[in-house]
Amino acid sequence: MPRPSKGPRLFLRKARPEKRQASVWVIRDGAKEVGTGCGPGEVAEAGLRLAEYIQAKWTPAPATGTNGPTDPTDVLIADVLSLYADGKAAKAPDPKAVRARLSALLEFWGESTVADVRRSTCEQYVAHRILQPIKMAKDPKTARRVTDQGARRELEDLSAAIGYWHDEHPLTRRPKVVLPQKAETRRDALTRSEAARLLLAAMGWYRNAEGKWKRRGLSARLNRAHIKRFILIGLYTGTRPGVIPKLLWSESAKQAWVDIDDGVIYRRGRLERDHRTKRRPLVVVPNRLLAHLRRWRDLDLAASAELREAHLKAGGDPLAAPQIVSVMHHGARPIAGRIRTGFEGVVRDAGLSQDVTPHWMRHTCATWLMQRDAKLWEASGFTGMTVKTLEECYGHHRPSNRDWARKAHG
């Protein structure tokens, strides 16, 4: 039975005056301890030493030139995950999310071999993960725990990684990764009044205990300006929450961007390949959202001019003057990663259920399209969903379907 490992990590070893040893950062890896040579104030340098240590530890050994398939007992899962991370995962729609899942797998399976993958160990992994707080939580003690569906998604990556390894280095036998039962997918959507409340909260308002709306200070409103943009783009276009933070104001070969002149959002860069399961077709921007986008663009151009002026007055290099290039930004800096933490605060202030996540914007857009009886193939191209998904998950919202049912049953 594999024992969950904490994995390599930094530890600040206290000074030992009796041995004339100063405080120093060390790398702890199980019972092993490796010095970094970095003092308490050299956290960044210690982090680099940790990264180098992990890279050296988990880099697969070069092929030995064996002629036949490899026995699973001779293959470390750490090597399997490393090969998958460098190959297939790097080309995934959301490589950062894949790396996070692989990191969780590595903590548990890193010292195990492929032969250790069995029904019992997969069940042990799920039991281990559902006790862990979500990674982005500020306070692990009060944070939500990882769900069994989250663990299922991680095990799906493990299965894919083993398959990827098997294609390159055939195994004598390929173990089956046993997954927990898949839950019924929730396709919840906001009502229009709930969406209005969410937008109010993103603009700095909150509902107090008496249900009355109060407004927060200016700094709080500015901190949420990017979330307001996120909500409006999500509701109007149904764009996936992982794509919206990547939107740029100008054409890009490797990133999603907005064409204000033609009123089109390109959900992927000119040279990016689309993914079979996460399609990212361009979308013609609805007029109401286009008006918002044009106003935001004007605001960002004005803010960029102010930043440039301040930069030049301070004697900065004109070629290095800062400018706002992203639709989603915070303090002129592009949003790095997801916005879940800030979004959760907006949901609380709106008085909505904490079940509401950024992905609800996509569900809401699809639901509203069906409620307006949009043609399936048009709604499919607009949202980037398949016709099958729209029909199965949202089709019951179509008025024509309800009218047919009423007539059929007289």
TrEMBL record:
The name this protein goes by in its record: Integrase
Organism: Brevundimonas faecalis
Keywords: DNA integration, DNA recombination
Tyr recombinase domain span: 185-409
Pfam families (UniProt xref): Phage_integrase
Domain of life of the source: Bacteria
